[in-house]
Fold this protein.
Amino acid sequence: MTKHTDLMSSLSDVLQQYWGYDSFRPLQAEAMRAILENRDSVVILPTGGGKSICFQAPAVAMPGLAVVVSPLISLMKDQVDSLTECGIAAACVNSSMSQSERQNVANAIRRGQLKLLYVAPERLCTEKMLDFLNGCQVSFFAIDEAHCISAWGHDFRPEYRMLQQLRTRFPGIGVHAYTATATEHVRHDISAQLGLREPEWLIGSFDRPNLVYRVQRKSDVVTQVRAVIDAHPDESGIIYCISRREVDELAELLSRAGYKARPYHAGLPDSDRMRHQDEFLNEGTNIIVATVAFGMGIDKSNVRYVIHTGAPKSLEHYQQETGRAGRDGLAAECWLLWSAANFMTWRKMQEDLPDDAKAQAYECLKGIERFCTGIVCRHKTLVEHFNQPYETANCQACDVCLDQLDLVSDPLIVSQKILSCVVRVKESFGADYVAQVLVGSKDARILGNGHDELSTYGLLKDERKEGVRDWIEQLSSQGFLERTGEYNTLKLTDEGWKLLKGQAIPRLLKPSKKKSSADSGTKLEADSWEGVDRDLFEILRVLRRRVAEGHGVPPFVIFADTTLRDLARRRPTSLVNFRQVHGVGDKKTTDFGTLFTETIRDHCQQHQLSTDIVAPSVTKSRSAPSDASTALALSTTKQLAFDLFREGKSLEQVATVTARSPSTVTEYLAEFIAATQQCDPAPWLSDSLFAQIRLVASTTGTEKLKPIFEAMESAVPYDQIRIAVACIKNLPPEKSP
Ligand code: ADP
């Protein structure tokens, strides 16, 4: 086995030994391989996708020190605490530390005792630090929250731009960028700004199958919010409001009603903000009511719900903010309570932007507006918004697919009334005007146009204009209507004409909904509790908090909720069985095994519960749907790719059909070549290029791709070398170079 394959297989051991995890999540193995191969990379995984381990595990497996750039002290601290609890030597240097603490870190690095160093970009890019690191064995650089380097992103930090010099100051050392950002513009900016060399692009699915999305018109917001909170007693949640005033008012109201809720916004004194954030992280308080100022420094994995009490200004923001729920892979709820006034507020706030920026901001608003009024699967809408395909017919995790919408019983008739009104006004007016005609408005414009004499005038006179407008939005989002021209005039699409003839059935929401949130349990949620003794879970939760206090770290750093549920399900009473539980590695067994197993034994004896259940962990297979379903999707995708290769399809064709990046498709092809033992790279590589690569490989060997790449003067992309090498390895020994 080569050194590289050795390292790769040792990564699985590292994952098990330190974190107690059995398998990689999608793209983690590929991301780690890029580090081992010393190829620059850009890794884009959704929040909770497991980006950190992509660089932490290789840092442990490789010799030297990995330098991780992170924008916030709180993020660095949580990550260093988490690593330390797992038994990994990590440290950070930041402005909150004393001179002697920083000196201790430097000494540890000099002695080769640290595997990971976390540092902010401005500190890393000082001459002193760069010089110091030049004298150390740096294994690679990991740039966390890499979107901060792009002025196009939502969290631009000018100090990230200083990282441009890493590529030139450390030419031989890999630079790897990590972000959850979904926009293509930002992604490419990251690579360009960092000056990455032919980076490996690893782009995961943006879907978060464990998040249950629900969208509701805002009515009595406090009652609506309380219904969600009450469905999650003692669990953590974030409530986003648009303005600081709303934050203060809602936090106050909730506190007075007896909930543990704290406000967070940029107008509060720093000390209050920090205290409230810490209380939330340490589970002293369950609920944080906040503006968008809250979030980036939050690694807390067990946020069980996120409520928006107003529509955010874009789907990108919505994805980012809801992404903070359910990082641990367990079911979590995302409620969006909106009103038409939200969009007017945003438009007003964006009015004074320069023309280009304003047009872009208004476009973003339209996206979130469509999401609010639409009644298409929420997962599908979000994923497709980020230009990825979504094929699941029923996500089982949104109000639309769970049939929790209050639907109009005769949608065809109502829609036909609306569409025929659009036709009667000669497809020359916008949504508001059409709605006014339908409700029989006496507006001067309508009377002036003689539209009060149309047969469709007042056809929906028992409805409110706002309700009819919503229906028009719903018909647009389902593709029956489209807007055209400068004035957004409504036109029927081909589907709309079919509907008018009764050949299609739309779905329309009733203007007022009766269903409340409290009855909203999902199968997803029920599955993640299967077999869990809830009382024991509560006892372990309290124990976890006590242990965390003793260690001066947040509870989720000690154990994730997934681990607590698995403990309360399998109820181990021996250290051996404790070690088998998801998320329990060697050090945590030594540190906490006795305490937790004794507590479990006592509880089980008292309540005559069976212990040491060896059935496969439900947590692993069911309650982490993101893992299970994406892994399944991955294997079927690979299978599909293999079938297409068998048919001789090109890499581009396979990439399009499977919606995978070119580099992932090349990986599949290399696996396909190995599995079928073929020695001929046609049709994926020309004979002449294959011959050239073989010639070079006869001197460099095929253990690593980089020497071949360099010997060919960087003129041949890695992907092509990978295909050639896969074939060379199948050649019979006498023909092998
Ligand atoms: P991100 O940075 O992408 O938001 P994190 O790195 O914080 O995500 O990971 C989210 C959670 O998933 C963490 O609790 C982490 O320990 C866990 N996790 C990461 N990789 C795996 C894996 N291979 N198996 C199980 N859990 C994992």
The pocket of adenosine-5'-diphosphate is lined by residues 21, 24-25, 28, 45, 47-53, 299, 301, 327-328, 560 (CB under 6 Å). The first strand starts at residue 41 and ends at 44. The chain has five domains: 3-203, 211-404, 408-500, 529-607, 636-728. The radius of gyration is 28 Å.
